[in-house]
């Protein structure tokens, strides 16, 4: 068989040819060992392939092409802000702060009544801050004399004494009648006997005696009354003597025919006439003294307030020691609100305009009307009880505006700081409006809004504008029917949309 082709070398022979010795353990050259070696070789090749593939994937993620890098760094699509077109009445308003206060505030100083000497001393304080009180209340006592609250509009400017006439007297008479004291037949405005009696009775009802209108007046009145009595008796005596004279019996040797003659009767008549004249003079003097004597109402013992119940805003003095400045501050009447307009607001606000009062503290609102607007600049007054000279010089000057509520405000709102919204203008009816920021202008100067349709498309719609208010503007589309309530218009670009987005979207079609 030596002439046949040679058989291919076995695996063992290949290993030996490569210089790898065969295993020396028994059976090393068997077919089982050869199969194991093939499997090990195949596993190594597979692992290498997996490693190369993983490295390729990592490289693909880390290394980008120039085109991909540019795409990744481009600005994202702009995110726009939209708002609906609305159909409503457009209002323009002025908003400012205001302070709730009473329509009348009175500072009461401690003073000595009736011109008595010495410094005033508060001997009683019958109220405290926050109290409410009614007409006839003795608020405090100064040097033993009362300070009484009564109803009235006319401020106190003088002492009222018997015989006085005027509107302030009529006010006193009305206040006394309200307190149940009858002023008799005195005509309105005349401090007569009925008013004197009523004032005396009122003072005694609150625990005091009224001061006399004239020092020594009672003694003078008594003397005048005695003079009248004496003059009246003189007249009576002369009349009695005259009646008895014709029938008087003769005395001293004179006969009955010697009775008083015509001359004596004439003398008696003259004496009677003169006595009657003296009586008339003394009676006239008594009447004049009566008219000016009696009780008085010192200006320091009364404070008139427009309405009750009234409120004590502040108590600045206590019992004892000398009273200086204002001892009490009280307020009365309906609550109003005072605000201060700046120069640019002054021309927009006028009496009669509608106002909304809103209390953030109570979460309540109320309707009101502008009552008055000052023509001159002023600074807000300090809070009640802050003391004289406490005006804040740093507070901005403004034009005082007084607002009258439609309905009486609750007393708890007195002194509160509130928000005032004055409606300065309004459209006659409902109109199409959009936020002011929705209006844009093209290169041709025409104004337009950009509408975003339901499918995302944008449409520039030319419009003309009207009045503004509350951040909105009235719009009228150039072509009827192009805009309607509910359409979404672009008002801006969302924060973070990118610098490139700031100018996109507006004017697009």
From TrEMBL:
Basic and acidic residues bias: start-end ranges: 16-25
Q: Where is this region: Disordered?
A: 1-34, 210-267
Regions crossing the membrane: 41-63
Endpoints of the signal sequence: none
Which domain of life does this protein belong to?
Bacteria
Q: What InterPro entries does this protein map onto? A: PGBD-like_sf (IPR036365), PGBDSf (IPR036366)
Q: Where is the composition biased (Low complexity)?
A: 240-252
Keyword Membrane attributed: yes
Keyword field: Membrane, Transmembrane, Transmembrane helix
The protein depicted here goes by the name: Peptidoglycan-binding protein
Q: In which organism is this protein found?
A: Streptomyces tanashiensis
> Which lineage ranks, top first, belong to the organism behind this chain?
Bacteria, Bacillati, Actinomycetota, Actinomycetes, Kitasatosporales
């Amino acid at each position: 068989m030596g002439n046949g082709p040679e058989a291919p070398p076995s695996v063992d022979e290949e290993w030996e040819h490569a210089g790898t010795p065969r295993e020396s353990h028994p059976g090393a050259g068997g077919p089982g060992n050869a199969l194991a070696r093939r499997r090990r070789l195949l596993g190594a090749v597979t692992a290498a392939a997996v490693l190369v593939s993983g490295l390729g994937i990592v490289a693909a993620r880390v290394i980008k092409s120039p085109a991909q890098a540019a795409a990744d760094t481009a600005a994202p699509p702009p995110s726009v802000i939209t708002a609906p077109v609305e159909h409503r009445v457009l209002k323009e308003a002025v908003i400012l702060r205001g302070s709730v206060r009473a329509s009348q505030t009175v500072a009461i100083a401690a003073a000595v009544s009736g011109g008595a000497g010495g410094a005033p001393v508060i001997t009683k304080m019958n109220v405290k801050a926050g109290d409410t009180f009614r007409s006839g209340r003795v608020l405090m006592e100064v040097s033993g004399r009362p300070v009484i609250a009564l109803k009235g509009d006319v401020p106190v400017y003088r002492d009222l004494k018997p015989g006085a006439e005027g509107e302030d007297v009529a006010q006193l008479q009305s206040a006394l009648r309200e307190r149940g004291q009858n002023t008799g037949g005195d005509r309105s405005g005349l401090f007569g006997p009925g008013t004197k009696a009523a004032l005396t009775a009122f003072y005694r009802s609150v625990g005091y005696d009224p001061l006399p209108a004239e020092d020594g007046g009672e003694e003078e009145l008594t003397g005048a009354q005695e003079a009248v009595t004496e003059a009246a008796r003189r007249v009576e005596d002369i009349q009695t003597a005259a009646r008895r004279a014709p029938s008087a019996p003769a005395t001293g040797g004179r006969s009955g025919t010697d009775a008083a003659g015509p001359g004596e009767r004439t003398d008696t008549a003259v004496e009677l006439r003169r006595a009657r004249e003296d009586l008339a003079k003394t009676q006239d003097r008594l009447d004049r003294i009566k008219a000016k004597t009696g009780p008085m109402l010192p200006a320091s013992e009364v404070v008139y307030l427009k309405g009750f119940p009234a409120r004590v805003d502040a108590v600045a003095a206590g019992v004892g020691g000398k009273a200086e400045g204002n001892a009490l501050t009280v307020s009365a009447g309906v609550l109003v609100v005072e605000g201060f307009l700046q120069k640019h607001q002054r021309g927009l606000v006028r009496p009669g305009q509608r106002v909304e009062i809103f209390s953030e503290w109570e979460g309540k609102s109320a309707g009101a009307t502008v009552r008055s607007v000052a023509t001159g600049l002023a600074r807000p007054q300090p809070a009640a009880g802050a003391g004289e000279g406490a005006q804040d010089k740093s507070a901005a000057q403004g034009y005082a505006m007084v607002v009258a509520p439609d309905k009486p405000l609750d007393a708890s709102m007195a002194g509160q700081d509130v928000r005032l919204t004055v409606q300065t203008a309004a459209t006659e009816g409902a109109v199409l409006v959009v936020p002011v920021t929705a209006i844009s202008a093209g290169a041709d100067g025409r104004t337009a809004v950009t509408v975003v349709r339901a499918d995302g498309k944008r449409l520039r719609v030319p419009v003309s504008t009207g009045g503004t208010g509350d951040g909105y503007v009235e719009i009228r589309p150039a072509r009827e029917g192009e805009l309607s309530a509910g359409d979404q218009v672009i008002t801006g670009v969302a924060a973070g949309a990118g610098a490139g987005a700031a100018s996109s979207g507006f004017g697009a079609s």
